[in-house]
Amino acid sequence: MSSESGAVSGESAALSDALAEARAALHSVFGFDSFRAGQAEIVQCLLGGADVLAVMPTGSGKSLCYQLPAILTGGLTVVVSPLIALMRDQVRQLQGLGVNAAALNSANSEDDNTRIHRDLRDGSLRLLYVAPERLVRDGTVAMLKRHGVGLLAIDEAHCVSQWGHDFRPEYLALGQVRAELGHPPTIALTATADAPTRADIVAKLFGDSDPRLFIRSFDRPNLHLMMQPKASAKQQIGRFIAARRGLNGIVYCSSRKRTEELAAGLAGMGHNALPYHAGLDQSVRNANQDTFLREDGVVMVATVAFGMGIDKPDVRYVCHADLPANVEAYYQEIGRAGRDGLPAETLTLYGLDDMRLRRLQIEQGEASEDRKRIERQRFNALVALCESPRCRRQTLLAYFGEESGPCGHCDLCQDDVARFDATVEAQKAMSAMARTGQRFGTEHLVQILLGNATDAILRLEHDRLPTFGVGKDRDAHAWRSIFRQLYGAGLIDLDIAGHGGWFITDQGRAVLKGQATVELRVESLTGGRAKDRRRGAGAAAVAEAALSAGDQTLLAALKDLRRKLATELQQPAYLVFSDRTLIELAIKRPQNLYRMADIHGIGQAKLDRFGDAFLDVVLAHDAPDRQAPGRDAAD
Predict the structure, then answer these.
(1) Are 390 and 227 in contact (CB under 8 A)?
(2) Across-strand partners of 79?
(3) What is the C-alpha separation between 270 and 525, in angstroms, rounded?
(4) Cβ contacts of 32 within 8 Å, gap of 6 or more
(5) DSSP structural state of residue 477
(6) Is pTM, for the whole model, over 0.90?
(7) DSSP assignment of 44-94, as one string?
(8) Which range has highest mean pLDDT (63-67, 189-193, 304-308)?
(9) In 10 A of CB 7, how many CB atoms?
């Protein structure tokens, strides 16, 4: 064996040993038996000193990808996070697991900062969370250089890109900061980043280096997707959450006024609904947030910023009373449901007023024309998802470049939707696209089909095309819906990075040539109201509904203990134990602490802190014939 091959073999063995150590820490610290998809590969890369760009959906365990290497390597990991609430939440969670972590931000007391500097000096601090605005200061960089940074983690990395849906200028300096820190191994993480955004992240954060790229499927199979035309948002959402009493949910609104009005309306219907937006008094916001985090069955009615800084895993549904800003925002916001992997539900209401408002916001914004053009196309893609004639999940994943079959459990897969053979209409629309060079947007093509001789049509002589006026049998609203549905069906696509023109896909060309047919939704074409889809407890309560009566009684007692402990500790309930942990405790009923250590989410620190109290509840509710003789030997 050559010395080079021997070195490679030795390096592989070392990485294998490191991954085995990581698996052991995964269980002992976090209480997890196995990695989620994609986590092990990322952890192994970081332990080997490689740079990483990870695009992973919300709820897939992005944070663990850098937290575990931070614990194992023993050096300082700096985590860039844009939200103080998220920093505070993750620091409390890590401290509860026995990991020395801290956050450096404007909310710190003098004692907080003193402890951070002391732990930096003695080398005991494992993770330091810092906002990008604080990190780019010369004093912060100089301090970190003195102590050395072993790993740099950049959360919400799409904020660095002008093509991202939440561009933040302060992120632009992070590439230079990374260089000043000596180019430590770096992981950039985001839940949503298309190809242009990913390229921008690499260029601005990593410079000449070539990070390993990990793109996990955007699919969240535990989320049930549902959309409805808006009739009365209060009544529709009220009926939806009435069938889900006792479960935690978020209802998003487009304005502060709407938030307060809807929260009051839902409360008047008997729901435990609380408002949350930046205009409320700080004490009210904090009290409402604490109630949502510590109690069960609370509905938080909020503007869209709520939830970004909260890692609450047991949100069982997310509703949109108003249409989100674009597909990326929709995906990120529904991603706050079901982060524990258990079934969760989403309901989005949409109407013409929402569409007008969102388009007006884009046009009246202060963004550049290029930026506005991209936002228009991203919003159009969301409208297409609302009016899709096929599986919601299939359409959503197609936007992110993934192919999939029908999911079988979104509203369109489960409900009967009136359709008609729209092959001729599709051929008319695509013929107009083809004859104009596949470079025009919806409005120009609609005017051609209607036979309206606009100034642009006359100037380009498009009034002489064979397709001019062939669509007079339908109005402009119907043709716009046809274009959106054809997009949702994958027959046409938008040049989002270009000028927003429609172009025909391979699937669309088959329809244009008469080699295939297409069906569209009548409901969307006519603007009719969707029927009320009331599903009882729905998918959200599947995990708990499957429990026996005795197990449900035990689960209620475990939740009651969790609530009391969370109140005493002034912490979110899930930082004690998650719903998944309590459900598993109720089903498996461990008879001693040794067996309790095998329950998902119970690491050594939590076992030491909470094990006895929860074990007492389990044993007190156990059937006589299942009682263990004692727990002394196992203790």
Answers:
(1) no
(2) 129, 153
(3) 36
(4) 26, 600, 601
(5) H
(6) no
(7) HHHHTT--EEEE--TTS-HHHHHHHHHHHH-S-EEEE-S-HHHHHHHHHHH
(8) 63-67
(9) 11
